[in-house]
Amino acid sequence: METALSVTVGCFFAISVYLLLSKHVIRIMLGVGVLGNAVNLLIFTNGRLLREVPPIIAPGMSTPAMEIANPLPQALVLTAIVISFSLFAFMLVLAFRAYQSLGTDDTDGMRVAEPADEKLPPLGY
Amino acid sequence: MASPADAPIDYAAAMVTAPTSAADWIVVAPVLAPILLGAVLLMVRHKPVLHPWIALPGLAIVLASTVALVARVAAEGPLVMTMGGWLPPFGISFAADMLGSVLAMTAAFVALVCAAVAVRDIDTTGRRYGFYPFVMLLMAGVEGSFLTGDIFNLYVWFEVFLISSFGLIVLGSERSQLDGATKYAVLNLVATTLFLIGTGYLYGIFGTLNMADIARKAPGLRETAPLMTLATIYLLAFGMKAAAFPVNFWLPASYHTPRIVVAALFGGLLTKVGIYALLRTQVMFFPVERAVLSDVIAWVAVATMMLGVLGALAQSDIRRVLGFLVISGIGVMLAGLALGTPAGISGAVVYAVHSIIVMTALYLLAGEIAERTGGYSLHDVAGLYRVSPALAAAALLLVLSVAGLPPGSGLWPKVMLVRASLEEGAGMLAFAILASGFLITIAMGRMFALVFWREGENLAVTREARREGLLLLAVLVAPAIAIGLWPQPLIALGDAAAAGLLDPSSYLGAVFPQGAQP
Question: Which ipTM was obtained for this model?
Answer without folding.
Answer: 0.93
